[in-house]
Amino acid sequence: MIMDSDALFICPLVRAGDIDLLEPSFREGAGRIWGELIKNSLIREGVRAYSARIDGQRDDPWTRLLGG
Predict the structure, then answer these.
(1) How distant, in Å, are the alpha carbons of 8, 13, 15, 27, 51 from that of 18?
(2) How confident is the model at residue 49, as a pLDDT?
């Protein structure tokens, strides 16, 4: 899991910037669910495309300005 800066203005967890604020059991469960979801080729391709966009934005100046 990563913090998605798209949710910066609506998600307190993203604003806090600390994934460890989530209960470990929740993180583990989410990981198991994602493992099942990405077995579907449409979901896998959607996640791949979205992840590529996030990765491409990491060096954008606005991302650093917003704390991403």
Answers:
(1) 12, 7, 8, 12, 19
(2) 94
| Residue 24 forms part of a structural domain | yes
Residues near 27 by Cβ (< 8 Å), separated by ≥ 6?
1, 19
Rounded CA separation 10/50 (Å): 19
> Domain residues for 21?
5-60
Tell me how many domains the chain contains.
Answer: 1
Q: Does the predicted TM-score (pTM) go above 0.70?
A: no
Inform me whether the pLDDT recorded for 64 exceeds 90.
no
More confident site: 14 or 63:
14
Are 34 and 44 within 8 A, CB to CB? no
